[in-house]
Amino acid sequence: MGEGLVVERPRKRLFVALLSLSLLVVGFMAYAVWQVSYLGLREISAYLPLILGVALAAVFLFTGLGIVGIVGAILGVPFLSVFQKRTYALINLLFPIAILLGKVFGFDRRKIERSFIAVSNQIIHQQHIKVPADRLLVVTPHCLQLASCPHKITRDPMANCKRCGGCDIGSLVSLAEEMGFHFFVVTGGTLARQTVKNIRPKAVLAIACERDLTSGIQDVYPLPAVGVMNIRPYGPCYNTHVDMALVRQEIENMLSDAPSGEKETTNG
Ligand code: SF4
């Protein structure tokens, strides 16, 4: 059986636990730095150790509140949304440490990434982001196209896909036509970034594997990006699929009724 055929429900708590642990590690390191530099700083001024200590404690507290915000988003506690504002900056900062700690405890990197995507999606859902259809960009990797399809769809999927039913690209093209969002097929991260630059969307829905979604979501920050994992019955990067019902549901959640040009709203 190919990987990704059975979609395992990702556990959000894994990522939150690793993130919290990362914060403790960073806190411990900051304390060690403070201890080592204490005498040297006191030589310069009696106030310097205190100033550095307060600054480090403030950063630690701010980061801790960010994690409280993430937990709040997962639990659906709206009053904690104020702490979620800088969530991705915090995640970007601690993510490499969380992956490293995950490895130490024997967690597969993919499992951690799946957990991150679930957490990230939950935060975006919690913010109730609404954008007009023409400010929503949906991107998918090239591997979603049937490998034997002769049509070049990376330039213009709307015009070049014949919607023969051979793969999910045809369904996405039809959905884009029905709902009015931008739809592009990209061959890699560089083209994905270029597409975001050209379209200048207010929100993104990306379909990809764990690795690409994780880096993509962090790359486009502060743009809100919902990730939908692809399904890989034949292994990675070959004739992949996507749950179209889930894609439709996520897009419907993000679309406002506002006509083109009107400002999108969030309450997060
Ligand atoms: S749906 Fe479009 S992309 Fe997929 S095989 Fe048919 S023509 Fe090719």
From the structure above, extract its key features.
single chain; alpha/beta; Rossmann fold; 2 domains; 4-stranded parallel β-sheet; binds iron/sulfur cluster
Can you tell me about this structure?
With 268 residues, the chain is of the alpha/beta class. It has 2 domains: 12-125, no CATH class; 128-254, 3-Layer(aba) Sandwich (Rossmann fold). 55% of the residues lie in helices and 8% in strands. It has helices spanning 12-44, 48-75, 87-104, 109-127, 157-160, 168-179, 189-199, 210-220, 244-254, and strands at 136-141, 182-186, 203-208, 225-229. Helix 8 links the parallel strand 3 (203-208) and strand 4 (225-229). Helix 1 runs antiparallel to helix 2 (48-75). The longest helix has 33 residues, at 12-44. The chain is elongated. Mean pLDDT is 86; it is low at 261-268. Residues 145-146, 149, 151, 153, 161-164, 166-167, 169-170 line the site of iron/sulfur cluster (SF4).
